[in-house]
Amino acid sequence: MPEQLAPLPARRWITDVHFAVLDCTDQARRARLAARPPWRQRAIEDHIAFAVYLRTIVPVLIPADGSPADTAELVAEWVREHGPKARAPTASVEPEVTRDPLSSA
User: How far apart are CA 60 and CA 54, in angstroms?
Assistant: First the structure.
C-alpha cells in the first residue's frame, strides 16, 4: 500500500510511484467471488471491506466492470498517462557489415 512504501530505505532510489485500483461495483465483486470454484477461498465480505478501504486511500479508480479487454485498455491508457515518460528515440546503429574474404561474392 502507498503508506507502506514511503518509509522503506530503497524508496530513495525510486522516482514517482503511482497507484490505481481496478474497481468494480460491490454487486459485480460479490458475483465474481461467488462464481469461484469451491476450492478457492471466497471471503466475500472481506473482499468488499478491502475494496471500500482501497477506495479511501487510492485516488485513482479504474472501472473494471467491463470485459477484460475493456479493462486492459483503460489500464493501458492510465499507464500511458502516468507511467514513465517516453524517451526520445535514439539513432539506430546499423551493424557494420564486412565481407567474408573467403567468399566469392
Answer: 10
Alpha helix segments (H runs only) across 1-105: 2-5, 26-34, 44-57, 68-82
Model confidence, pTM: 0.65
36 close to 42: Cβ distance less than 8 angstroms:
yes
Dihedral of CA atoms 65, 84, 7, 10 in degrees, nearest 10, equals: 130
Supply the pLDDT for residue 86. Answer: 46
Rounded CA gap, 23 and 35, in Å?
18
Q: What is the pLDDT of residues 29-72, one digit of tens each?
A: 999 999 999 888 889 999 999 999 999 988 889 999 999 999 99
- In single-letter form, the type of residue at position 17 comes to V
For residue 96, give the 3-state DSSP assignment. Answer: coil
Nearest C-alpha neighbor of 33 from the set 22, 44, 48, 49 = 44
Task: Express as a percent the part of the chain with pLDDT over 70.
Answer: 78
d(C-alpha 29, C-alpha 80), whole Å: 27
